[in-house]
Amino acid sequence: MSEFDNPDSGLERFRSRIAVSLAAVLIAFLALAGRFIWLQIVQHDYYTTRAEDNRISLVPIVPNRGVIVDANGLVLARNYSAFTLEVTPSRVDDLEATINGLAEIIDVQVKDRKRFKRLLEDAKNFESIPIRNRLTDEEVARFAAHRYRFPGVEVKARLFRQYPQGALASHALGYIGRVADKDVEWIDEKEQAANYKGTEHIGKTGIEQRYEFELHGKTGYEEVEIDAGGRAIRSLRRIPPISGNNLALTLDAKLQGMAEKAFGERRGALVAIDPSTGGILALVSTPTYDPNLFVDGITPDNWKELNESIDKPMVNRVINGAYPPGSTFKPFMALAALAAGKRTPAQAISDPGFFNFGGHLFRDDKKGGHGMVDMYRSIVQSCDTYYYQLANDMGIDAIARFMGSVGLGQRTGVDLGKDEKGESEGVLPSPEWKKRRFKKPEQQKWYAGETISIGIGQGYNAYTPIQLAQAVATLANNGVMYRPHLVHHIVDSKTGEQRLIEPQPIRTLNWKPEHVEVIKRAMLGVNKEGTGARAFAGAPYEAAGKTGTAQVFSLKGGKYESGRLNERLRDHALFIAFAPVDKPKIALAVLVENGGFGAQSAAPIARMVFDYYLLGKVPGGPAAEDPTAREEDEADEE
Amino acid sequence: MTDLAATLRYWLRQSVAHLDFPLLAIAAAILGVGLLTVNSATFDGNNRALSQLMNAGVAFAIMWFVARMPPQSLMRVAVPLYVLGVVLLVCVFLFGVKVNGAKRWLPLGFTRIQPSEIMKIAMPLMLAWYFQKFEALLNWRHYLVAALLLLVPFGLIAKQPDLGTAILVGAAGFYVIFFAGLPWKVMFGLAVAGASAAPLLWNMMHDYQRKRILTLLDPTTDPLGAGYHIIQATIAIGSGGAFGKGYLHGTQTHLEFIPEKHTDFIFAVFSEEWGLIGNLVLLVLYLLLIARGLMIAGAAPTLFTRLLAGAISLIFFTYAFVNMGMVSGILPVVGVPLPFVSYGGTALVTLFLGIGILMSIHTHRMLVKK
User: Fold this and answer.
1) Do B58 and B89 share a domain, yes or no?
2) Which of A197, B41, B187, B337 fits a disulfide with A60 by CB distance 3.0 to 4.6 angstroms?
3) Do A346 and A621 contact (CB within 8 A), yes or no?
4) pTM value?
């Protein structure tokens, strides 16, 4: 080891080199410090000017959002250009004083100030924020004359979304609103971040959300030189934006408007489908709301009113309301029985007015019973006893399998909202479902008695109106099931090319035509001589239907007297129908919340929709309730 | 009860026993500056400050672990690590994936690695090991072999091309040779030779490298292209003035004029917001860090530890000087991060690994002597 031979020479040389390097480091750092002094002290003014005078900035140009039109070309959502007065907070010393000054020459109301404050809170540095929207020409001119007094304030042209039909079809269209944090995540997920630079609005629900990336378009850019005040001096280069694609719906706005009016003040839902394509002709959820309220960020007062209303106008009942189908379930039960060979059409039972299940009496709504009941009469007269027995004979597994095959208890995949998950699944009762739904073992067990009331569409059964509409459309279409959808075709904004949204067959059910015919004839009988006869009296076309009542409140042994019950506890009225029977053009499901019997309030709405769609008849006002309709079913269990 | 307290105290003492507090305090201070600046640089978009803090946590853990390892263990890994590094670099040369026109990454299926990063530590370890091994009988041949050991990885990395990393790896190796006592005459001769070979080097360079040197000489020739980085960065620094524009108030930064503002060009962000005062404070912090490292080198007991500590200290200097030099426009733009400040987990781990080695050398000096 050299340190032993010559203990110090190596170490000393090393230490001297350490000293040399430290000196070198010092010199290098002094050179850097010199450079910093040169840049930051000597040339500071020059660079300050450079920083403030000569900024080249990329200004995104937001594309025009696509327009949405109905099946006949009527505009449901469009854009209009308007002037806004905008303040860039980072360039204003005293915001309060500036806004007060502006208020002297331009009308600035309290709500404008409130909105400005709200936007200010989540605005980024250097972003300009609108203080007033939709300036009149006069206001623009007045501001121009006073502009010198307001550095950091400018008039800008912006595009606004507008729903010219107001609340019409709002639950189908949805609305756009300001981009929120969770929207940013969505945009990132879709790798659209670059394309959304400068975009302030995004679809929040409905079609506006589902087709967001079709409607948005491609953002353009302008390279501009900006002066110290942040104003553009000149444009260096411009890459124009490409407008979003337009959507043409299957929805018929006139039919939609008529259907919405038919509900009057009543809460409920209606879905009308073209059975041969799955195209949705009308989609009603009442009460509605005006989507225009959301475009600029809804005011807290409006939001509170909509969100806290007991009528829940923000809930899309069509896809998010799950209701027991009541007797509208019976035609499907009958078809299941035919398909499974558990009943023949002619096989009749004698109905004593109840079904005895091991000592439990399941009652028919008609005291004393319906007498001899075959399949036709069971549907036309809506006989409960027939279906109590049938359910017991078939068993829950066979029922669940069949109802699952017509789409009940499953998301339909309708093109609304961000993705499928926005749609409710409803409840298709089965032993498996019970196992998933409940935690305690004693609750997980399926009792044979529970199957009985499933047979008449009560019990755990709960389906969304769109599922019912899809099921009845499938029946009308002889077992060929289509995915319900709202967009008929997309028009490419650049080429004008039309991209058809092809009807998507989900599955074809292997039903025997003669079985389907039995059910269809019976449903026609409902409107000719049964529970729907009054609503469809004198109709020049043949309509098949089935009324239903969904229990809201269970009356143990009491007599149902709707007038004396709290309005909110009245039963929900349902009606499913399609017409014309031989060549169905329209199939629908109607639900009226707390509407009492299906024949009473839901069937008349269906009649109006059919009259309009098949005959072009325009009614005067809301559908009249039929106060005398009484023959509905009522599940009673003792 | 007292047993527990005593155990805890023992554990606590044990866990910090090998840490060097001056070194830790200085590195933590610079890291603090870095976190603040990363926060500002990424304030308007995807904020990376928290992510960098997590990187720092990992880096700290590695530092803590390495500081406890005796230098003998470091010696044992020197050769395998170096060989692994060279093999991987050859693999990159043969099978690497190209990103942005440079082949730097080696795909491993589930992830990809940048083997040149390993060489930043492996190079000084290897050369220090080599000189220690032949300490008693050093002659000019050993310097030649050392130069070869240095040039092979250097060439492979420069060829990728990754000039920034090549410079750091080359410098690390050179510092070891320098501290091992390479005669001044030889160094002087090499400098002359290098200067005369410059034209040859120029011909070997990639277009983008030539462009960077040209634009350094006159950035205005290409204001929207290669000169853009330098122009915008110098505007940021210059407009910062003596006291800066204030934290989070740098216009160049927040108007998105500074490219790569949270990585290689973060110094422009810092400089714009903290001004000359901030720059001088940062320079003093780096100076203290380097000085402490060189002190540790001076007190190190063996040739291996001495050379390693000296080289690591000067590597910190090289990082800082090259980065600040390029951002302020006196050195060409090469991809070298500002140590402990730039965002990036790999660089932070490498840097704290270096700190850990310095601590290990310092804390184990007595044990070796005994």
Assistant:
1) no
2) A197
3) no
4) 0.61
